[in-house]
Amino acid sequence: MHEMLTLVGVRTIPPEDYPDLILWMLQSYNRGQITNREVGDLIWKNFFQGKLTYLHWNKGAEMAPIIGEQGGTLLVRKLPTADPFFMRRVLVGDVVVMKDPEKSDNYLVRRLAAVEGYEMSSTDEKDEPFVLEKDKCWVLSDNETLKPKEANDSRTFGPVPMSNIVGRVLYCLRNAVDHGRVQNSHFSMLKDTPVLEIELDVDEMARRHKT
To answer: Considering 14, 52, 132, 180, which has the largest number of Cβ atoms within 10 A of its Cβ?
Structure first.
C-alpha cells in the first residue's frame, strides 16, 4: 500500500526508514538540539526538496589548516538569503561559502568575523574606525601567516553584503584519512549536529574528492 517517496533529483526514502527518521527528530527536539521549525524544515527539505547540504571543492592556503593548500571537499549547509531567519542562521565565528565580491562566477571560503553594528578599527593609525552598515559583514581568512593581499579577504576588498553568503561549512575532507568537523560558532555547531547525523557521508565525499 505504501510506495517509496521518490522525486526527480531527490533521494529516495523507503517507508521502513520513516519511523527511525521521525523518532530521531523527536528525540533531538526533546533534547533541545533541534527546534520545532527545524523539524518541519528537515521533513520538508529531505522528503520533498532534497538535502539541506551540498558538496563544495575548495583549494588554496587562505583557510589553512582547516583546508589544506592541496584543497578539500567540504560539506556545506545551504543558507538561502530569502529565508526570513537568515540573519539568525549564520553567526560570527562561522566558516562560510560566499560569492566572491570581485569575481561573480567564483566562490570563497572565509570565516565570518563581524556583522552589522560592529565597530571596526585598524592597527594602521591612518585608517579611521568605522561601523559596519546594515546587512554588511567582514570576513577573514584563517591563515595568519598570509599578508592581507595574499589572504584575499575583507582587509583587501572591504565589507561584503550578507546576501553573498550561501552556506556554512560543516565538515572538511582533506583526504581519505584526514577529515573532520569544521569549528564554527558554538550555537551553529549545536544546530548543525542533527543535519550532520543525517547527511554526512564520508565515503561519498571521498569518492567526489579531487586529487
So the answer is: 52
- Residue 153 contacts residue 114 (beta carbons within 8 Å): no
Q: Which of 38, 62, 168, 199 is catalytic?
A: 62
**Sequence letter at residue 110:** R
- Give 10-residue mean pLDDT values along the chain (211 residues): 35 49 61 63 56 91 90 92 68 96 93 95 86 96 93 95 95 93 96 92 91 66
Grid coordinates representing 45? 527539505
Strand boundaries in the chain, DSSP class E: 53-58, 72-78, 95-99, 107-115, 119-120, 130-131, 136-140, 160-161, 165-175, 178-181
How far is Cα 30 from Cα 43, in angstroms, rounded to an integer? 16
Q: How many CA atoms lie within 13 A of 80 on its CB side?
A: 7
Alpha-carbon dihedral 53, 55, 56, 57, rounded to 10 degrees: 160
89 a catalytic residue = no
pTM greater than 0.85:
no
Strand, helix or coil for residue 132: coil
- Rounded Cα distance between 101 and 188, Å, is 25
Out of 38, 77, 89, 110, pick the active-site residue: 110
The one-character DSSP state at 176 is T
By DSSP bridging, strand 178-181 and strand 136-140 are unpaired
Coil, strand or helix at 89: helix
Classify 118 as helix, strand or coil. coil
Whether 37 is a known active-site residue: answer no
